[in-house]
Design brief:
The structure holds 2 protein chains of 2 kinds. By secondary structure, chain A is α/β, with parallel strands linked by helices. Chain A folds into 3 domains: 67 residues, Alpha-Beta Plaits, CATH 3.30.70.20; 288 residues, Alpha-Beta Barrel (TIM Barrel); 33 residues, no CATH class. In chain A, 32% of the residues lie in helices and 13% in strands. In chain A, strands 6-13-12-11-10-9-8-7 form an 8-stranded parallel β-sheet. A two-stranded antiparallel ribbon of chain A has the order 1-2. The C terminus of chain A is likely disordered. By secondary structure, chain B is an alpha+beta fold. Chain B folds into 4 domains: 163 residues, no CATH class; 113 residues, Uridine Diphospho-n-acetylenolpyruvylglucosamine Reductase, domain 3; 184 residues, FAD-linked oxidase, cap domain/gating helix (Vanillyl-alcohol Oxidase, Chain A, domain 3); 118 residues, Fumarate Reductase Iron-sulfur Protein, Chain B, domain 2 (Orthogonal Bundle), CATH 1.10.1060. Chain B has 25 helices and 18 strands. In chain B, the strands form 3 sheets. In chain B, strands 14-11-13-12-16-17-15-18 form an 8-stranded antiparallel β-sheet, with helices on both faces. In chain B, strands 5, 6, 7, 8, 9 and 10 form a 6-stranded antiparallel β-sheet that branches. Chain B has a 4-stranded mixed β-sheet with strand order 1-2-4-3, with helices on one face. Chain B is globular and about 70 Å long. Classes of the chains: A alpha/beta, B alpha+beta. Chains A and B meet through loops of A and helix 24 and helix 25 of B. The structure holds flavin-adenine dinucleotide and iron/sulfur cluster (4 copies). One iron/sulfur cluster binds next to helix 20 of chain B.
């Protein structure tokens, strides 16, 4: 059995106090430094001062879970708690404050956030929240089994699987093996939504290298790095440039250094793929296809043409791009593409990569259930670096967490911590479903419950009996 | 042995004998003390704490008066301080002390002035702070048995949930029951309920012989223990009579144009048979002081009377009586003044050191007396302010306060000399000094009538033949140096001094010697010289109460701070203790002089850090051990509002 892969976490406390859900205020005029709050708070919000334990530090607000223990126990009623206005303003309807809180916690600690007793929801909603995984396996391994003794694999391959192996008389594989890459987690780092300073990219690539995965980066942002092998350059207008014979000198150099490249989809994309393969045959080429109405057609075309990796990307909120149906979500798109390839019996010849809207560990699992082989994360990586998604930097304003001054080793650690926590959650899902390999999860829609299906089952019969005829599914 | 000591030993003994009190002194204090300490240690085990560190002995050599030249006249540094935790232990201590003829100085919270707790001949201080158990509450009979070291505030806290309360209490709420029995015993509620003697059913007394006796209010001996400053026996426990807790206090404050008008108002009210719980008079200067504290002129600066009722019927009677007399202050102001009754020392003068004179005087002589002393105080260039509790139909307890500054020593001496002058004038108005201690001992004949005094002396001879209890004071102040300086404190001489003091005051107070500016003094300086060493802070300080370490006692830290300011040597281990403070601010809340103690502690630590390093480990251990103490949490939760 191969050596077990595990990600070592290491505490990376925030440089700036994160926005918390609550604001705890301690009235220094009332407080008698009795220390009760420091003893009753389970979340280290209240602490005696390190340099002089006779004094109490400012409450570390963001750690507060709002349990009210300290409020009740303070003998001097010196503590008050209120909702944090800033918290409510964080992110948007998709990237909710809770998501930020979870990512920050995971990036700091590397552990799975605990939220009191059991799953607190949401139980149903839009996007990934409209499906549930079936975690009812009775003989599931114990938790320490999942993270310890049991061997559960989370690694996936990128590239085409050989359809059939032929051997020579010495028992050696004869047929040329198609190039594949193996990554230990079904996650690669996608192009991050905003442009950033080099130290931010450095953090990302260091983490990618540590984890053994890859990071896609726009060629415009390309930089020389010790970890170049983990970079996947993205070329936006390659076909146009090739037509105009505008091949730039770095192109070959860049290509030589990488194991994988990504190119934007356009009508002449196949020519470009061919050209790259000509330069370097073992290169894995991924085509970035924006989700839209014609996605299926493109997938079909490229798959049959032998493109190894199809990267279907939605917008940052997981909504499909250029679609007549504005509410179509990335998981529905990938499900369709997956089913199509299965129908054509060429599913294993392509790697389906999904990006857009991956905000939590469970989204990774759900994306895979819907048919993705690999997911690509974007915004959570930035959030792990304390980004508040306020977009001030994009408007030339100062960054509240001074990402420009970020130390890349520290940044890398926060991302590694986040990935560690996500992988551990994935292991729990797999364990609970009785699976030992994440690849077995792919397309296991049978092991998931989709909100649409329930709706359909529950209401259609009733409505039909009531004489309502229009299709419920489309009334979405 | 120095010549002086030999002299003292022999002569003192002779003089002592000539007074009828034998008094053995040590040849060599130190070696004797060491033997005694060993002996006591083995006898007492864990039932008492024995302190003999230099710093502790120093702080136990003083009371709130802290008269700077005490050490010149007396051996005021005790050889040892004992804090018994059990009555049995105390019994052993007294027995040994009696056998060995070692002087004993009982000490409650040390809040009385006049030197009542100050050692005169070395010896041992018996500190009652650990004999503070509340033994038994009888809700039916409405009585409570408490040990002598219990503080008034502790009884009040204990009774909080029981719908019962005390009848009277001193405004020094932080002082001990034993201390009030032994001293004046008049305070808040005395108009209605009389003095401490009338709210006690019985006491248990320990005599130098080792005998413990329970003495009932009906016994002939009973009255001998009230106001006699621990001369006859040590009070161990007292059974206090309680009363139902009144639902509310109804204070009224009325302004008058003169002290005379105010006193007439009080007299008329008493004539009308109106019985308030408490009657208090304050002169215009005192009200001015209150305005200064508040930082605004909320009160009219006039002579005023605060009358407090608890009974609504009585209150209505009063209102119809008072309706067209004086000017009635707003209700909230009356409530404020009533609330401030527990902070009688609060002051905001430019000079830090408060001085006070206390005496009782017939009500009818009250305003002429005031007129006279105001004139006199002007000669001493001080601005006095006066408050008074009316403690009977025709008697007032008068407290005269004024501010000085110990750092301007000559001025301070002159100001100090004013105290006996004020007392003497009071005596001329048929007044009686409130306590005797050391500094009022010359007035014994004015305080105690001839017959009673004879009885006292005979009783003293009977119960304390070796004169081990509080020697060298009360009956007569006996100083060291063969009591030669003591001549000054002999009634006849003393009277003459007080007579001529006003004549000398202009010399001492000559403007050339007048004050240095106090403008840019630090908070610590201000605090140190304003602290009256009343010990109110000690009654709430968790650090002190949990550790029972006298060096952690905020009052004593003030003494350390003073040494620091004066550049005196401080040992490292003493300095370390100053850091063992939670900065909780509880001391600040009850500080009688409203001092900014939190800032003072920070400045003290800062000053010490310049000499020694901050004792980080000691601090860490201190915090951990405090947090591990159950008593601490009980204490903290007593704070819960
Ligand atoms: C701010 C302030 C306000 C005050 N208000 C009042 C007031 O309203 N009314 C009033 O009467 N006084 C008042 N005083 C004076 C003083 O507080 C009281 O006299 C108080 O009762 C003294 O108690 P203590 O515990 O401090 O006794 P201490 O000062 O420690 O001792 C007083 C005397 O009693 C002796 N003694 C102590 N305990 C015992 C014992 N168990 N057995 C025998 N002898 C003992 C001591 O030897 C000493 O001679 C006030 C003082 C201050 C500082
Ligand atoms: S409310 Fe609870 S979690 Fe928040 S600070 Fe208080 S004790 Fe800690
Ligand atoms: S419990 Fe209250 S009084 Fe105690 S340290 Fe905390 S805030 Fe201060
Ligand atoms: S602040 Fe320090 S000295 Fe004052 S009560 Fe608290 S522990 Fe005691
Ligand atoms: S600090 Fe305040 S409360 Fe403490 S002894 Fe001094 S005056 Fe009294």
């Amino acid at each position: 059995m191969p050596k077990k892969y595990s990600i070592a976490g290491s505490a990376a406390p925030p440089r700036f106090q994160p926005v918390g859900k609550f604001v705890i205020e301690r009235n220094e005029d009332e407080c008698i430094h009795c220390g009760r709050c420091t003893l009753v708070c389970l979340h280290d919000v209240h602490k005696r001062r390190g340099d002089d334990p006779r004094f109490i530090s400012e409450p570390v607000n963001y750690l507060c879970k709002g349990c009210f223990r300290c409020i009740q126990e303070c003998p001097k009623e010196a503590l008050t708690i209120k909702n944090n206005e800033e918290w409510l303003l964080l992110g948007d309807s998709y990237w909710t404050p809770e998501t930020f809180g979870k990512i920050w916690y995971q990036a700091e600690t590397g552990s799975i956030p605990v939220s009191g007793t059991g799953y607190t929801g949401p139980f149903s909603g839009e996007g990934f929240d409209s499906m549930w995984t079936d975690m009812s396996e009775i003989v599931r391994p114990t938790r320490d089994g999942i993270h310890g003794r049991e061997y559960i694999s989370t690694s996936v391959y990128i590239g085409r699987k050989a359809q059939m192996l032929t051997f020579d008389n010495k028992g050696k594989i004869k047929s040329p093996l198609p190039p594949t890459l193996s990554i230990p987690i079904p996650l690669i780092f996608d192009i991050i939504p905003f442009r950033f300073s080099k130290n931010v990219y450095e953090s990302l690539v260091k983490a990618a290298s540590f984890l053994g995965t890859f990071m896609i980066i726009d060629l415009d942002e390309w930089f020389n790095s010790k970890y170049q092998a983990n970079l996947v350059p993205f070329f936006a207008n390659l076909s146009k440039k090739m037509n105009q014979k505008l091949m730039f000198p770095e192109f070959e150099g860049v290509i030589k250094k990488c194991k994988m490249v990504e190119i934007a989809y356009d009508l002449e994309v196949l020519k470009v793929v061919e050209e790259i393969k000509r330069l370097k045959n073992e290169m894995i080429v991924s085509v970035r296809i924006p989700f839209g109405d014609s996605t299926n057609k493109i997938v079909e075309e490229l798959a049959f043409a032998g493109v190894e990796v199809l990267h279907l990307c939605a917008d940052v909120n997981g909504k499909v791009i250029s679609s007549s149906d504005k509410n179509r979500f990335v998981k529905d798109g990938i499900l369709d593409a997956h089913r199509l390839l299965v129908e054509h019996k060429i599913r294993d010849e392509v790697t389906l990569m999904l990006s857009g809207g991956i905000a939590m560990a469970e989204h990774v699992a759900k994306a895979i259930i819907c048919g993705a082989d690999v997911t690509a994360v974007d915004l959570p990586l930035l959030i792990a670096l304390e980004c508040r998604y306020c977009k001030r930097c994009q408007n030339g304003l100062s960054c509240p967490v001074e990402l420009k001054a970020l130390n890349s080793d520290y940044g890398a650690q926060r991302i590694i911590n986040l990935m560690r926590a996500w992988r551990n959650q994935l292991l729990e899902v797999l364990g609970a479903m009785g699976l030992r390999d994440v690849r077995r999860l792919r397309g296991e829609v049978g092991r998931a419950i989709l909100h649409e299906d329930i709706r359909h089952e529950t209401f259609e019969k009733i409505l039909r009996s009531e004489g309502v005829t229009n299709n419920i599914k489309s009334s979405n | 042995m120095g010549v002086a000591k030999v002299f003292r030993c022999t002569l003192n003994q002779q003089i002592a004998c000539s007074y009828g009190f034998s008094e053995k002194r040590y040849g060599d204090i130190r070696s004797m003390s060491r033997d005694l300490k060993k002996k006591l240690e083995s006898l007492l085990g864990n039932d008492a704490r024995l302190l003999d560190g230099a710093f502790e002995r120093e702080v136990y050599s003083m009371d709130i008066g802290a008269i700077p030249f005490t050490g010149l006249l007396f051996d005021n540094i005790p050889e040892m301080i004992i804090q018994p935790k059990k009555i049995e232990a105390l019994k052993t201590i007294i027995r040994v002390a009696n056998e060995e003829r070692v002087a004993i100085f009982p000490r409650g919270s040390g809040s009385s002035g006049l030197g009542g707790v100050v050692p005169t001949v070395g010896g041992m201080v018996i500190d009652f702070s650990s004999l503070n158990e509340i033994d038994e509450l009888d809700q039916e009979k409405m009585t409570i048995i408490v040990q002598a070291g219990v503080r008034w505030s502790e009884i009040e806290n204990f009774l909080k949930s029981k719908e019962l309360t005390m009848r009277t209490y001193p405004s020094s709420f932080f002082s001990t029951i034993g201390g009030w029995i032994a001293t004046g015993g008049y305070g808040i509620g005395s108009f209605k309920f009389g003095n401490i003697q009338s709210q006690i059913e019985s006491i248990e007394v320990l005599f130098p012989s080792g005998e413990i006796k329970s003495i009932n209010q009906d016994d002939e001996e009973f009255s001998l223990f009230f106001g006699t400053e621990g001369q006859f026996g040590i009070v161990l426990t007292a059974t206090l009579k309680l009363r139902n807790k009144p639902r509310k206090a109804l204070p009224h404050m009325i302004y008058f144009d003169s002290a005379e008008a105010a006193v007439n108002f009080i007299k008329d009210m008493i004539k009308e048979n109106i019985v308030p719980y408490n009657i208090k008079y304050m002169d215009a200067a005192h009200i001015g002081e209150t305005n200064k504290i508040l930082g605004e002129r909320s009160f009219r600066e006039k002579d005023s009377v605060l009358v407090t009722f608890e009974d609504e019927l009585e209150d209505r009677k009063f209102l119809s009586f008072a309706s067209n007399r004086g000017i009635h202050a707003e209700e909230y102001l009356a409530h404020y003044i009533w609330h401030e009754r527990l902070f009688s020392m609060k002051r905001k003068g430019s000079k830090p050191t408060p001085l006070a004179c206390e005496l009782t005087i017939p009500l009818e002589n009250f305003s002429p007396y005031l007129k006279k002393i105001i004139r006199m105080s002007k000669r001493f260039k001080v601005k006095i302010n006066v408050e008074s509790y009316i403690i009977g139909k025709d008697e007032a307890l008068v407290l005269i306060h004024y501010d000085s500054d110990v750092r301007n020593f000559r001025t301070y001496l002159a100001h100090l000399a004013l105290i006996p002058v004020l007392t003497k004038i009071g005596i001329a108005f048929r007044g009686v000094p409130y306590g005797l201690g050391i500094w009022n001992a010359p007035f014994i004949n004015e305080k105690i009538d001839h017959q009673t005094l004879r009885r006292y002396k005979a009783y003293k001879h009977e119960v304390d033949p070796r004169n081990i209890l509080n020697p060298g004071k009360f009956f007569t102040a006996r100083t060291k140096w063969a009591n030669i300086p003591g001549i000054l404190l002999k009634p006849v001489v003393f009277r003459t001094i007080t007579k001529i003091a006003p004549m000398f005051s202009p010399i001492l107070l000559s403007p050339i010697l007048e004050e240095k500016s106090t403008k840019d003094e630090t908070e610590l300086e201000k605090t140190v010289y304003s602290c009256v060493k009343c010990g109110s802070c000690a009654s709430v300080c968790p650090a002190y109460l949990i550790t029972r370490d006298e060096l952690l006692n905020p009052k004593n830290k003030m003494h350390l701070a003073k040494k620091l300011l004066l550049g005196e040597t401080i040992t490292k281990s003493d300095a370390e203790k100053a850091f063992l403070c939670l900065h909780c601010g509880m001391c600040r809340e009850v500080c009688q002089n409203d001092l900014d103690l939190l800032t003072a502690w920070l400045e003290l630590e800062e000053g010490l850090e310049h000499i020694f390093d901050k004792p980080e480990d000691a601090i860490q251990n201190f915090v951990s051990s405090i947090e591990a103490s159950e008593e601490y949490w009980r204490f903290v939760y007593a704070q819960k509002v």
